[in-house]
Design brief:
The complex is a heterodimer of chains A (163) and B (314). By secondary structure, chain A is mainly alpha-helical. Chain A contains seven helices and no strands. Helix content of chain A is 71%, strand content 0%. Chain B is of the alpha+beta class. Helices cover 33% and strands 25% of the residues of chain B. Chain B is built from two helices and 13 strands; from the N terminus they run H-H-E-E-E-E-E-E-E-E-E-E-E-E-E. The C terminus of chain B is likely disordered. Classes of the chains: A mainly alpha (163), B alpha+beta (314). At the A-B interface, helix 1, helix 2, helix 3, helix 4 and helix 5 of A face helix 1, helix 2, strand 1 and strand 2 of B.
């Protein structure tokens, strides 16, 4: 998958996540955290996204969501960093570990995102939408990864060869 | 060695971008006029794309509604017949009251209330995140919209406009953390403030000491401070626990489709302005606010009629 296709896919995702989907307030974090999952996948491909692109996609999400500028840029950059660090490690490329790393980063990102939101508003904001978003993103991760299993070398044989 | 240099460059870039995110967050928190203008322009720029992209969703929703209408038609017909009977009686009573009100007004030489102009648009985007509950509407400054106007749908008040571009307007919803709306509660018209906290049901704040509010009490706008017209339907109290009361809004805030923006500048502005003029305005209510009826300008052909907003003061 080329970098341009990844950018186009992410751009479409940003637009789609801003559309009026009729989600209840507790589910409002699901689309951006699914986007975070895509950023994670595209950042760990052999031809990964650059940090600039992750930042730009986050900034576009900020603009379209009318939220504070820099918030989703920060979150996506965090996901990008974790994915790049993971991809740079040799071995341990089985799907379970890949999924596990994403789950851990989704939890970390949600927690940090919630803390940033609390700091921004100088008060405790509702944590449930963030938690719901993280849970759905982790559960949907295998489906999102499926089309990219070959370039990610997540097949059992490749995992065995790599380790 | 080149690999190490590349790694270091990447590290510096990441640091710069993280730092830029923080700077943007701080600038955003300060919320200057320049940033607001920029955001308005960005919304304007994105509006055509969002408008096109939201069309499949609109048609899917209409198909779903039609299918569900088809299956529920028999039971619904029976219910509507009963409701129609009841409404006829109410209509007769309303006409009677209207006549009496007109007589009283003429006896008192009361000043005519401001006529209410409005424009109707479609929700083309909504927001995600802990910060805002807002919508983007495909009507803007060129249609006469300004910041601070009330946004209603067929069921009641939904929010108010905050950023206005030429072709698109952003409105915060009643459950947004920054939303504060002066309201009247219940039959004794207790003054309070409806405050959003990003949850599904906003809170009632500043209820005067000694006054009681109950589940089921109707909430309408009070019109205090001249921000919103008085008497717009808002919702009902859904729960009271201790000193905390929550309000279930009549408008389903997570599923807004077509909304109307009421051009209400100040209670002192007289109705005559722009009665037959401006092309941008969908239509103008010829009677005072009591009779304002909201019709959709952007209704797609063949779609189900929407948006008969009851904006009558109580």
């Amino acid at each position: 998958m080329s970098r341009l296709s990844a950018v186009l896919l992410l751009g479409a995702g940003v637009v789609a996540s801003a559309l009026p989907l009729g989600l209840p307030p507790d589910a409002t974090f699901i689309p951006p955290l699914l986007m975070a999952a895509l950023v994670f996948i595209f950042s760990s491909l052999p031809n990964p996204l650059t940090a600039w692109i992750s930042f730009g996609v986050g900034l576009a999400s900020d603009v379209l969501s009318a939220g504070p500028l820099g918030y989703w840029a920060f979150v996506f950059l965090l996901v990008h960093t974790i994915a790049v660090l993971y991809a740079s490690q040799r071995g341990s490329r089985g799907f379970a570990s890949y999924w596990g790393v994403f789950a851990a980063s989704a939890v970390a990102v949600s927690l940090i995102g919630w803390l940033v939101a609390c700091l921004y508003f100088v008060g405790a904001v509702d944590w449930r939408p963030m938690a719901n978003g993280a849970i759905v993103a982790v559960l949907a991760f295998p489906v999102l990864v499926w089309p990219f299993r070959e370039p990610l070398r997540l097949t059992r044989r490749a995992a065995a060869a790599g380790s | 060695m080149p690999h190490a240099a590349h790694g270091m460059r990447g590290g510096i870039l990441l640091f710069v971008l993280f730092f830029a995110s923080f700077v943007l967050l701080v600038v955003s928190r300060l919320e200057g006029d320049g940033l607001r203008t920029l955001r308005g322009q960005a919304a304007d720029f994105a509006a055509p794309v969002l408008e096109k992209a939201s069309l499949p969703g609109v048609y899917l929703r209409q198909v779903r509604e039609r299918v569900s209408d088809y299956f529920l038609a028999a039971g619904e017909l029976e219910r509507l017949r009963g409701e129609n009977e009841e409404l006829r009686q109410w209509r007769w009573r309303a006409e009677q009251l209207d006549r009496r009100l007109a007589q009283m007004r003429s006896l008192l030489h009361a000043v005519e209330e401001q006529a209410l102009k409005y424009t109707t648009g479609r929700v083309i985007a909504d927001t995600r995140g802990p910060f805002v509950r807002s919508i983007l509407i495909n009507a803007g400054g060129l249609e006469g919209v300004k910041a601070g106007y009330a946004v209603v749908n067929g069921d009641g008040l939904a929010g108010r406009t905050i950023q206005v571009g030429d072709h698109a307007t952003r409105a915060i919803l009643l459950n947004d953390l920054n939303s504060r709306t002066p309201v009247l509660v219940g039959p004794s018209a207790i003054r309070a403030v409806l405050a959003g906290d990003n949850s599904a049901e906003p809170l009632l704040e500043f209820v005067p000491d000694g006054s009681s509010v109950f589940v089921g009490d109707e909430i309408i706008t009070s019109g205090d401070e001249g921000l919103l017209p008085r008497g717009l339907r808002v919702g009902v109290i859904s729960s009271v626990s201790g000193s905390t009361a929550r309000v279930r809004t009549h408008a389903t805030l997570s599923q807004l489709d077509y909304v109307s923006i009421l051009f209400f500048d100040s209670p002192l502005v007289v109705a005559s302005e722009g009665a037959a003029g401006s092309k941008a305005v969908t239509s103008q209510a010829q009677q005072p606010v009591e009779q304002a009826r909201i019709a959709s300008k952007h209704e797609p052909a063949g779609s189900k009629p929407r948006g008969q907003a009851d904006t009558r003061p109580r």
